[in-house]
Design brief:
By secondary structure, this protein is an alpha/beta fold. It folds into two domains: about 280 residues, no CATH class; about 130 residues, D-Maltodextrin-Binding Protein, domain 2, CATH 3.40.190. The strands form two sheets. A four-stranded mixed β-sheet has the order 2-1-3-4, sandwiched between helices. The protein has a two-stranded antiparallel sheet with strand order 5-6. Strand 5 and strand 6 form a beta hairpin. Helix 1 crosses helix 11 and helix 2 packs parallel to helix 11. The two termini are about 20 Å apart.
Length: about 450
Amino acid sequence: MAKLFAVVKREYLERVRSPWFLIVTLFGPLFFATIMVLPGYLSIRGMRNSGVSQFTVLDATGTGLGERLADRIASRPNTDSLPPALAETVNAMPVVPRPVIEVLTADALAAREAQLVTEVQEKRLVGFLVIDSATVDKGEARYAGRNAGSVGETERIESALRSALLSMRIEAAGISATTAESLTRLRISLSADRITDRGKGGSGLASAFLGGGVAMLLYFSIVFYGQAILRGVLEEKTTRVAEVIVSSVSPDTLLAGKVLGVGAVGLTQQLVWLSSGVFFWTQRGALFKMLGMGAPPPMAFPTVSPTVLVALVLFFLLGYTLYASLFAAVGAMVGSQEEANQASQPVIMLLVFSIIFLQPVLLNPTGRLAQIVSWVPFSAPIIMPMRMTATEIGIGELAAVLAGVLAMCFACVWMAARIYRIGLLMYGKRPSMAELMRWIRQS
């Protein structure tokens, strides 16, 4: 036990004292907060500075649809049904000027369109929108311009055109203009709250974010620290340090010490990241205000029971141990970094298999696909924690999945230990599958 503790202590302190560990641990949360907030901030800045109004509307409908469209482009969106925080952000945006409306006949449309193409090429115009009889009958319109690849601007034009066309059709059906206007500008704000056995469990959207965040955190931790064990074993093997170590410590103790020591490093980093995440969540209002984004939308943090917290830790420990033992076995049976990159591909593919189902499971955490994937021992350490934070999981199912992962963990550790005993002191070419099976049987 003393030798095991010595190996664990060495592996832990060696990595914790590394400058890269300190940089990633301390600045990692800041980086993730930046990539989460910066896109929204840039999107709002882009909307405020948008050139969507700098286009011309060629109206060949003969119905005045272009004027209706211009009114909607130049007006603020209806914020009555929006959350106060989002309404504040929308109202802070500058009013967009009306686009230029050119009313012409269908015969003159082609010639005028060709002229505007030249103006766009000469950068005297951003773009132009063509609406004609096909717009009135089928809802078809054409936009051409240098900003045609801007999703936000084209969506705004499309939304305004849809609202204007709908309003015109409603009035044609005999409904007053005021009623048509109120109908076409109606917006719905839907909030979704989880209900668990203990009552309401917070925002459903926040639960989805938490579930996806937990899954990605576990995935990257297993990949990073599993690879760290592979590199550590390979380095000790290629530098012949392992020959000195195994003279005083058994290979099984050395393997266990590496897995536990590096796992403790990963757990330490996760605790720091989770604490930082809670801090950024509680201070998000001040952060949004500082960036001029208005107050964040109200979103109650989902409740996490002590059972779920314990299960999350167990899934991380078991999942990490399972994959770390496989990475250690890979490091023991190869002799170079190139061979390690090739031999570790099957292990990495098992992890990628879990991430492939991340979005489908997050969209429907109670579906049959989510259940099946969360029962597979190799994907359960990532998928099941995501399901637990996104929806309610029964204690019986949770215990059964943990038992399955534990059994697979014991099998992988047993197999990896046998490969590690022989492979650590073997040099030369990478063993074949038949040789690996012989190592497992004879060690």
